[in-house]
Design brief:
Blueprint: E1 11-14, H1 17-25, E2 33-36, H2 46-56, E3 61-64, H3 78-91, E4 96-99, E5 102-104, E6 108-113, H4 119-136, E7 141-143, H5 157-168, E8 171-175, H6 176-186, H7 190-196, E9 202-208, E10 211-212, E11 218-219, H8 228-241, E12 246-249, H9 257-273
Parallel strand pairs: 1-2, 1-12, 2-3, 3-4, 4-7, 7-8, 8-9, 9-12
Antiparallel strand pairs: 5-6, 10-11
């Protein structure tokens, strides 16, 4: 059975341990859902496990995986997938997503490495996604990632992502900041990319901040405020595909709750303006 979906006009933040105690006391009304990395919470008991249950009684969860390595060369960790399936059921997780990349080559590499944009990589990744979905019993979503080079390119980024999503019959987590980062680093029009994505498969969106190197290269960090061009791109995305659940990503340099909620308010403002 597929988990239930979120309201189209909704916004959330990431559940980080630094703010778990605060959220367990009371999740602010402005936050409609929370995103967590299941690998960080599976099997966790004690105070943090109790707080996780308390938070889950207040708002829905979505799960965004870090280590499945869906396109990686190492064998698929089916035990991990089974643990994630059980976690989804236990905590009534609404959406499960992962990165369209790889992170494992016999050991965790602790980075999101780009896949080759080839027909062979499409076929390989699709087979692995289908196996994951068979174990889960429902669709997963894959996120378009930021990248700085590709091992091999026979297809465009658009062709590669679209082929995987379509052939695997899975959903898409559209990261608007990653589209912006890649559009600057690789020289393309971001709205052309978004227009080419299968809108009916987009389960939710990410928006985040980044870092600009002195030479102009943009690094996807999730450690800064969202900049105006990314807010503008998010608004245009809503205008094109309609409002969708949107997560504010902030993985480090996490500000106080007041500042996080101010950015959540900007997401909701864009959703309202889009109609």
């Amino acid at each position: 059975m597929k988990p239930s979906s979120l309201a189209q006009k909704s916004a959330g933040i990431g559940l980080r341990r630094a703010i778990t105690s605060e959220l367990a006391t009371a999740v602010p009304a402005q936050i409609d859902f929370l995103e967590l990395a299941p690998e960080n919470w599976i099997g966790l008991g004690g105070r943090l496990g109790r707080q996780l249950r308390e938070i889950g009684e207040q708002v829905p969860f979505v799960a965004h995986g870090l280590s499945l390595s869906i396109g990686g060369p190492a064998p698929l960790e089916e035990t991990l997938v089974e643990d994630i399936r059980d976690f989804i059921k236990t905590h009534h997780v609404h959406i499960y997503s992962e990165h369209l990349s790889y992170t494992n080559d016999g050991g965790q590499l602790y980075d999101l490495l780009p896949l080759p944009f080839t027909v062979e990589a499409v076929t390989y990744t699709v087979d692995r996604v289908k196996r994951v979905q068979d174990i889960l019993g429902h669709r997963m979503a894959l996120e378009n990632v930021s990248y700085y080079l590709t091992p091999k390119r026979d297809l465009s980024e658009i062709e590669f992502i679209t082929a995987v999503i379509t052939e695997a019959d899975c959903d898409l987590l559209l990261d608007v900041n990653n589209v912006y980062v890649n559009s600057v680093n690789h020289g393309y029009e971001p709205m052309d990319f978004i227009a080419a994505m299968p809108a009916e498969r987009i389960s939710y969106l990410h928006v985040a901040g980044h870092y600009v190197e002195p030479d102009g290269l943009i690094i996807d960090t999730h450690g800064a405020d969202v900049i105006d061009p990314v807010w503008n791109l998010l608004g245009k995305t809503y205008e094109m595909i309609g409002p969708r659940p949107t997560l504010l990503e902030r993985d480090f340099n996490i500000p106080g709750m007041e500042q996080l909620l101010a950015e959540v308010a900007l997401i909701k403002q864009q959703q309202v303006l889009s109609g």
